[in-house]
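Researcher: Last one for today. Full complex below.
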Amino acid sequence: MSVKSQSIQSKKQTGQDERLKKISPLRVLLNRPELGALGGSILVFIFFGIVAGDTGMFSAYGALNFLDVSANLGIIAIAAAMLMIGGEFDLSIGSMIGFAGICIAIPAIYWGWPLWMSIIFAFAMAVLIGYFNGIMVVRTGLPSFIVTLAMLFILRGATLAITRLITGRTQVPGLRVLIEDDPIAWIFATDTFQWLFTWLGKMKLIALRTDGTPLATGIPPSVIWFIALTLFATWILMKTRYGNWIFASGGDKVGATNVGVPVGRVKISLFIGTAVASTIFACIQVLDAGSADTMRGTLKELEAIAAAVVGGCLLTGGYGSAIGAALGAIIFGTVSMGIFYTDVDTDWFKVFLGAMMLIAVVFNNYIRRKVTENK
Amino acid sequence: MSEYLVQFNNISKFFGKVIALKDVTMRLRKGEIMCLLGDNGAGKSTLIKTLAGVHKPDEGEIIFEDKKIIFDSPRDALDIGIGTVYQDLALVSLMSVTRNFFMGREPQKGIPFFKTFDVEKANKIAAERMGQIGIDVRDPSQAVGTMSGGERQCLAISRAIYFGAKVLVLDEPTSALGVHQASMVLKYIVKAASEGLAVILITHNVHHAYPVGNSFTVLNRGRSMGTFQKKDISREKLLSMMAGGEELNKLEVELKEMDRVART
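Model: Here's the assembly. Have a good evening.
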């Protein structure tokens, strides 16, 4: 109560200042890092609404399809964005996905571990690898680009070598039967709101299979994770002390250290964050496919960084948002799936991805100049 | 209780074979402004970092309020009340005034594990504090990048004071500023000292130091050339002590010689 009245009072005080320029809502919006991505995603939806509106892309089944792809990318993009705001890169995200996949599959299939134990094992490995990335960058002062590039090769190589050594193949199938009674696996493998979709099916509001069950059975786990992580990351960045430390560490490492921000610890925790997000990604995909593939996640690190950049993260750190990265992921996911519904050859997707990123970088640089120089 | 708030006795610091500081002694009372003068390479930066807890002195002792202390990190120095404002100010220009003001020491509210950064309270304090020194922060959520150099300097100093600095160490606070902005900062420094802080003002600009300083310590090639009270030393004498003086005299002689040669 008292806090509230004080804040009103302080607002009144600043309100009385005749020098306070009236800031237009547009101006406020312009100062938000996710503006570009918001505009971009609106454009993308308008485009596909016109081009592919009647093709089934926006049916429940179609929409969940592109949301699933967006959500998977979003999970790693948000973690990559937080790390970028903290001033570092992680190029080992894609390799970490492959590695986490076999960390789940090999113990479960070949060593007879219960599935939940191998999932925990995968997360433990992720924490270790993220910690190693972080401590290498913080202790040596080397660019994270180099350190994690090394980790990209090491992890991918290790994934391939270990899998072939133990299984003689590069794929580990047979996980599906283990999901059923597992106490943990459902977190990454259950479609939610199934009752809603069944009901919608009964009401003939969504498409049905020939046996009468709805085509779209529920919200995929990736989407739930994606939404939860977006909210969680936004809360951390905007509303917590740790969030302020992330901005400070990326904005000015030396300055932040000098005022007592534990920059090293912040960065290490962010590297652990990207590795853990990669493992969440791996869990969802491996349990969905029922098998682990050593090449899973290839090039995902670059897509994650691209989504973060489109979402307004500066490559130099200290600026960006989780919502922006989430929107960036939605743009990429929507276009990569939507392109199937148009007459355009899908080969053009990468061209779009690159062009989008270039535009975003130019736009972001312009925004940063505006933010720091509008006197 | 001795008359001094803080004493740095015979501080030495070596980097391998390089002697960065040797036997530097400084003692400050409350409300005193001591100017630390020295040319480039005199060891000013090393001394600041030693005062701020970044470097550990290899020899000598630091006595604060009659207790001998050893800093393990910059945090230790901050915690006992030595606030250092570096030349780069430790401000992040992309972040807001409030977020900068409370960087590293954000006020929190809420229950454990779900504590949030109390932005409203922080905004209020930041605007209030800046208002006290005559800087009207129109919007505490504006980026620091939009402020002038003098305003940024004052923000950094005001932040150090808010977080309990009893000794302010200021590294070249006026070096990058124009006359007007510099005088605004100097005025604020004098005001801070009059409220009981001890201030160590590091500069190579005698013209900025002389009007505000109570005493002057001159550093040359890592050694202290002594500490002088204002009444005992003139501006010109100080200037010539800062290595520059000798050099300039020599230059004058050389120029005269060249002039003479040219004429004959």
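Residues 234-264 of chain B form one domain. The interface with chain A takes residues 52, 74-75, 78, 84, 86, 88-95, 99, 102-106, 108, 115-117, 119-121, 123-124, 127-128, 136, 138-139, 143, 145-146, 148, 159 of chain B (CB under 8 Å).
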